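Researcher: Structure for this, please.
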Amino acid sequence: MRIKKHPILGECEKGKEVKITVDGNIIKAFEGEMIATTLVAEGIKVFRYTSKYNEPRGLFCAIGRCTDCVMVVNNVPNVRTCTTPVEDGMVIKTQIGLGKWKEDSN
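Model: Predicted structure, token format:
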């Protein structure tokens, strides 16, 4: 579900439809919307798991102040999805713990 008409901002125009990959699944998104917006609209609630207790986290503040919505985006961990706009072809993964900057070669 996406907001079509906001009580203060008025009509919400959709950007061009694009495709992104989230945990191996291709989903549609719209240019100009934040990654977190797309995920919530698609029913995805868990964005990462904490490093200490492996607890699920998702959208919390939605303004880039906390780190609950961080995910691995195009192999870069700790990307705040609530303030990062979608781009066609993005590859997004649920982040486990602190994330890895590169894969170990072992």
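Researcher: Any notable elements?
Model: The beta strands are 5-6, 10-11, 17-22, 25-30, 48-49, 56-57, 70-73, 76-80, 91-93, 95-96. The radius of gyration is 14 Å.
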